[in-house]
Description:
Largest sheet: 3 strands, parallel
Strand order of the largest sheet: 1-2-3
Number of helices: 4
Shape: globular
Helix content: 25-40%
Amino acid sequence: LICLPGILVMRGGAPFVATPKKIMDGMLRLANIKPGEIVYDAGCGDGRMVFAAAAAGAKGIGFEMSLPTFVYAKVRSLFHKNSSIRFQNLWKQDYRSEERRV
């Protein structure tokens, strides 16, 4: 499978379409993210929302089920403190257990 923005559709998932920076900034502003909070991005794509939340002081956790996109986001996460990218299906994830892993 090839993973290019807006092209790959995984079984049970949607295509990866990057969120524009202006929209992402607005989402974070509306969410009023505070340091120490946990921000989840289910279907995180390249991880940009996870990394932006981590830069705001939150713990950013992203879930991705497309292997090529996951690998790309995982490598990028090595350069962003307080971020975590996981290769998991967002529909089958138990989000309650994430609070204990942080």
